[in-house]
Amino acid sequence: MKILAINPGSTSTKVALFQNGECELSRNVAHDAVRLAEFAGVTDQLPYRKQTIEALLAEEGADLFGLDAVVGRGGGLLPMEGGTYVVDEKLLHDARVGANGVAHPAQLGSQLADEFAREHGAQAFVVNPPDVDELQEVARITGIRGVYRNVHLHALNLKETAIRHAASLGRAYEDCNFIVCHIGGGVSVSAHRRGKMVDGFDIVGGEGPMAPTRCGSVAVADAAAWAREHEVDALTALCHKTGGFVDLAGTSDAIELTQRAKEGDEACRLAWDAMIYQIGKCIGSMAVVLEGEVDGILLGGGMAHSDDLVGRLSRACEWIAPVTAYPGEFEMEAMAAGAERVLSGQEEARCYTGEPVWEPPACFAD
User: Fold this and answer.
1) Same domain? 200 vs 184
2) What does the alpha-carbon distance between residue 297 and residue 303 come to, in Å, rounded to a whole number?
3) Rounded to an integer, what is the distance from CA 76 to the centroid of its chain?
4) Which of 117, 214, 219, 252 is the most exposed place for a label (fewest CB within 10 A)?
């Protein structure tokens, strides 16, 4: 099988070509930030991004003849269950307009996949987009009528990490219970029960542990008091852009932060210690979600390269279940693997409907 994976980021696009499960080409296509700023919206960037990807593939001599599938990073979609989804007109429409209200380059993933797939007679898919929502009902309820929890997590990497770890145990993901963390620029902590991500934290909305660019959970009264002295938009930015290490220590670089901490910078030390402490607390809460039946605690993402972080979380949490680190990300591999499971008949492709995955209970209706 020949599969092309495309993952658009803020100023670059990751591209990888897989042949029979092996990565033959993996490159990061840089985009001119000044040129990107000329476009009114994310979708307007599509022709420019496609041209730069085509130029790189030509430069590398990439052979797309016989391409079976093109997989794009999902984005801009409404909540859905996990899985591999066919890119059709409904999915493309919602990606183009950003139906979830979050403008992000990931919206271009399905659009780019569709463009390349049409040109090469291949199928187009998205796999476990950020909008995967498999929460159990009780996890959705808040103490405010009409306000319900949802999650925005690193679903693609979280699920791929769980799938890989289950395979290492000789078991299927659907037969295991895991607490899975992605610890990078954002920090996702999630509970997976028998193949479903039944709880986690809305890291775009300000839930969960502190992260390099995210403030994490803050008492509502404290956040409201802060907003009265500043602006609501500035408070929102703290949730996903300007909070965490950025606000406390003036950097989003964890390597720089830990080095400064070693050199005696007290703000950096406290920020690092507090983040690890908060991740541990969140892992503990997910253990309660799974009622103590946990087959493993899995730590992925870029910061899982830190022996200090992994060691401390292991000591804090290994009484719950064995802790295993999977440093880095498997996003490109995860996209290709999802397509391969469908093409080989191991998994059935899903159709995106845009319909709610859950309806608020009638007992709380106004």
Assistant:
1) yes
2) 15
3) 13
4) 219
Q: Would you say residue 19 lies in a domain?
A: yes
Tokens of 148: 């319900």
Give the range of the structural domain holding residue 193, as residue numbers without chain letter. 137-329
For residues 174 and 290, membership in a common domain is answered with: yes
Q: Are 351 and 94 contacting, i.e. CB atoms less than 8 angstroms apart?
A: no
Per the prediction, the chain carries an average pLDDT of: 95
| CATH number of the domain within which 221 lies | 3.30.420.40
Does pLDDT of 366 surpass 90? no
Question: 180 and 121 share a domain?
Answer: no
Residues 193 and 270 in one domain: yes
Among 288, 269, 40, 34, CA closest to 177? 288
Domain tally, the chain = 2
Residue 362 in any domain: the answer is no
Rounded (5°) CA angle 94-187-40? 35
pLDDT band of 257, cuts 50, 70, 90: very high
Residue 341 CB-density burial (10 A; 0-12 exposed, 13-18 middle, 19+ buried): middle
Specify whether the CB–CB gap between 212 and 253 falls below 8 A: yes
Q: How far is residue 182's CA from residue 189's CA, in Å, rounded to a whole number?
A: 7
In this structure, the answer to whether residues 288 and 148 fall within a common structural domain is yes
Shared domain check, 297 and 342 = no
What is the percent of the chain with per-residue pLDDT over 70, rounded to a whole number? 100
Contact predicate 71/339, CB 8 Å: yes
* 25 dihedral zone (left: phi>0; alpha: psi -120 to 50; beta): beta
Query: Do residues 115 and 152 make contact, with C-beta atoms less than 8 angstroms apart?
Result: no
| pTM for the whole structure | 0.92
Q: Is 365 inside a domain boundary?
A: no
User: Is beta strand 323-327 parallel, antiparallel or unpaired with respect to 296-301?
Assistant: parallel
Alpha-carbon torsion 355, 359, 362, 366, what sign?
A: negative
Q: What is the DSSP string of 128-144?
A: S-TTB----GGGGB-SS
CB of 124 closer than 8 Å to CB of 342:
no
